[in-house]
Amino acid sequence: MIYVALLHSIVLAPGRRVVMSDLRDMATDVGYRNPRTLVSTGNMVFEADVTQLCDIEARLEAAFNARYGKPVDIIVRSGVDWLKLAGSNPFPDGEGSQLIVRVMRRPLAPTAIETLRPYANPKQRLAITDGDLWIDFAGKPSEWKLLSALTTKRMGVGTLRNWNTVRGLAEMIG
Hints:
InterPro entries: DUF1697. The protein is of the alpha+beta class. It has two domains: 2-78, SP0830-like domains (Alpha-Beta Plaits); 82-173, Alpha-Beta Plaits. 34% of the residues lie in helices and 27% in strands. It contains seven helices and ten strands. The strands form three sheets. Strands 4-5-1-6 form a four-stranded antiparallel β-sheet, sandwiched between helices. Strand 2 and strand 3 (16-17) form a beta hairpin. Helix 3 packs across helix 7 (163-173). The longest helix is centred in the middle third of the chain and has 16 residues, at 53-68. The radius of gyration is 16 Å and the shape is globular.
């Protein structure tokens, strides 16, 4: 079965990042097959026997911590679920680098949007689809205070990916 793994952060220390070839080697070392990465931001597609997503996440997180000496949250989705996520974009007219999805480990409640409204600009669009948060930032995400409100403490474990990356991973799955 095909899976997608998203690392929450690949920054180990100032000026030190995870090299994608090392990430692929790590996945192979724990028994996953044919690992492929997309851009240098911690996105990986690989094959494995059918198993619980939480087991894959725990295995990858433990391997990452052992290899790099730093814990990191890793979100895993089946290839089928990733294609469903890519097909659920509520803002298809959004610009690829300005449209962001926060892929969640546990689904967000629809009321989570209300928690974020005080941080959002009226031009920004927010939606929750199948428990993941979609945001059309209407500009560079780094220029808006909404980005800093998307913390693990406030939202739960998740990680951000822009629409270009979502599509790229979907293309890798096929």
